[in-house]
Design goal:
Layout (H helix, E strand, L loop, with lengths): L3 E2 L6 E2 L5 E4 L5 E4 L2 H8 L11 H6 L8 H9 L7 H29 L3 H15 L7 H6 L1
Antiparallel strand pairs: 1-2, 3-4
């Protein structure tokens, strides 16, 4: 079973799903849904459309350079079946997925590191702006 990638958003296109567009120069474009096909026909740049993988990679929101992605590229090369090779490949695939999940989690944590302090600062500013709305317990007792 061949799993294609959507030309616009880079999501997986399963067999029998999506649409295929063949240009006059015989270049084949596969799309996962009509939304991607419409955006392609409108000549939109996937790196500027916020919901695409290309945007997330260009904006630094997802890991782009990692050795675990090279393993996926090698999976698409057809190899003659061998039981030992197959068992070793399945075992390696599981290990690679574990490593990738760990690295993606570390990347996410590093990216979100300064958010807690930034959120505290915005909360302080919000309180300072509306300080008259905040009442202390001693003021409530007087009323």
């Amino acid at each position: 079973m061949r799993l294609e990638k959507c030309y616009f958003c880079s999501s997986t296109v399963y067999p029998g799903h999506g649409t295929t567009f063949v240009r006059l120069d015989s270049k084949v474009f596969r799309f996962c849904r009509s939304k991607c096909h419409r955006n392609f026909k409108m000549r939109r740049n996937p790196r500027k459309v916020r919901w695409t993988k290309a945007f997330r990679a260009a904006a630094g929101k997802e890991m782009v350079i990692d050795s675990t992605y090279e393993f996926v590229k090698r999976q698409n090369v057809p190899v003659r079946y061998n039981r030992e090779t197959m068992a070793a490949t399945v075992k390696a695939m599981k290990r690679v997925m574990e490593i990738r999940k760990r690295r993606e989690r570390a990347f996410y944590m590093q990216r979100m590191q300064g958010n807690a302090e930034r959120e505290k600062q915005t909360n302080r500013k919000e309180i300072q702006r509306g300080i008259e709305l905040v009442s202390t317990p001693s003021e409530r007792i007087k009323q």
